Amino acid sequence: MFVQEQGIVLSLRPFGDADYIVNFFGEKYGKQAGIAKSARSSRKRFGGLMTGTILDMQYRTRSYSEVVFFKEIQPALTHLEWRKEFDMMVCVMFALELAAKTLAEAQPAERKFALLKNFMSTIEFSRWREQFFEWEFAWLAECGWEWQGERPAITKKNALSMQKKLDRYIQEVIGPKKFKVGPGFHNVL
Question: How do strand 65-75 and strand 30-36 relate by DSSP bridges?
Fold first, then answer.
């Protein structure tokens, strides 16, 4: 059966010489894994195949396999504001990882898809921290987690405080600066 739907790439892994295994979150059928044959050599059929991209996908399912096979993948939205700033990229990658860990396999989740798609397509440089914390609270609430106590106000001050904690964590995990960072990287490494 051929399926056409929008999806968000959660992760990519090389497979063989020219293929990718794509873990994605589809609008109609939820989180799935698929094989994009010759994706590394065919930009025409698999243009824009990157982690975090919102795509229009065509794929084939088989009754005896949980893995889908992609026919064609094209970018649906070209909003890539978050790829311009390292801190924003870390945040978005964390959001994609959280989504991947909390989604059930092959279970439709249209509200969650809309929530993640909206976050990915509207994140702005000027207020990405607040947007991330708002998305995270909404996502966890949609997953059934309940906040105990008052919901904290998301302000630039406490977002910057969280950023400093994240910076310290990255410093401890990655270690001392190993390369020169360009402008706009806020000296995270």
Answer: parallel
